[in-house]
Amino acid sequence: MAEIAPKISVAADPAVARFSQSLLAERNASANTVDGYLRDISQLAISVWGAQAEPPFPWKEVGEKEAHAFMHELAHSGAAPTSRRRKLAAVRSFFRFLQGDDAQVENPFSSLRGPRTAKKLPRTLSPADIDRFLKQPLSDLADGVLPENIALRDRAFFEALYSTGCRISEMTGVDWGDVDLVRGSMIVTGKGSKDRLVILGSRALEALKAHQANVSLRNASNVSSDSPVFTSIRGKRISPREVQRMMKKYLAESFLPLDITPHKLRHSFATHLLDAGADLRSVQEMLGHSSLSTTQIYTHVSVERLKDAVSSAHPRA
Predict the structure, then answer these.
(1) Which active-site residues does the annotation give?
(2) How many domains does the chain have?
(3) Residue 143 burial (10 A CB sphere; 0-12, 13-18, 19+)
């Protein structure tokens, strides 16, 4: 049932129509997101009134019994836990909206909890793989494959990305005024437009200084405080998509898996810090996580590595 398109549509229901408009106008939801909500609400309507029912629907009739039955059907339909959690969130949100229209409407889904989903451990590169990858731009320069300005830019970008654990959008958004090459730090703007201070390691600092000197030599105005640190060959701020293409190229040349993304450098940064003994709170602050629980997944990666080490080396493992 869960992933099959419903045979009825709830779009013509007055309450659902108002909810759809609210999603578009107040939450700035995309058309695809609204369609997803409508599919989930349609499935609820089928569960309660059958596939032949037509709007308008008496939503006040939906109580805890019907809510539990709906979730039970989803569980036995083969729907993945993530899908069931999403559907629960959709119908819960719809009834919360109905309560805003009519205080007498109950939300039968408010106390229900979705199934737990197993957290996937983030894939990381080893320090040796990171080293091989980060050396590739200068190797291309030495081989005559890349011009100096591109090689220095790319080395600086990826050195800084791994050194700070930044998201790709945070790094592409950095201006020269955000970088303190004397103190070895950088201000980046993360999720929620929150600024945070990140620390540049010696390798990243060296790479950024070389990149800045090269940019200044070509045009001193391009290192003004409001100029982007990383630009495309056309002189515009480099885009995340272009960075992803750059990374694919260097991964292929380094004989590393091509499914490694810039975000995997962030995972590697956090894991390597914890492996080396950094405390969780410090890593949380460096990553810009609002919740410590988000950072804790990296402790699982470290534990898995310890288990591998014990199983391969301990005589009684």
Answers:
(1) 167, 191, 263, 266, 289, 298
(2) 2
(3) exposed
Distance from C-alpha of 6 to C-alpha of 313, rounded to nearest angstrom? 55
Residues 169, 303 within the same domain: yes
In tens, the pLDDT along 234-281 reads 999 999 999 999 999 999 999 998 888 888 888 888 888 877 777 667
The whole-number pLDDT of residue 313 equals 54
User: Which residues span the domain enclosing 33?
Assistant: 14-101
Instruction: Report d(CA 31, CA 43) in Å as an integer.
Output: 19
| 166 and 61 co-located in one domain | no
Q: Which of 155, 153, 225, 240 shows the shortest CA–CA distance to 187?
A: 225
DSSP helix/strand/coil, 255: coil
d(CA 258, CA 133): 12
Residue 145 lies in a domain: yes
Task: Reply yes or no: is the peptide bond before residue 108 cis, omega within 30 of 0.
Answer: no
Cα atoms found within 13 Å of the Cα of residue 7, Cβ hemisphere only: 8
Output DSSP code: residue 177. Answer: G
Could you tell me the pTM of the whole model?
0.57
Cα–Cα distance for residue pair 315/158, rounded to 1 Å = 40
Q: DSSP labels for 70-110?
A: HHHHHHTTT--HHHHHHHHHHHHHHHHHHHHH-TT---TTT
Query: Which CATH number do you get for residue 171?
Result: 1.10.443.10
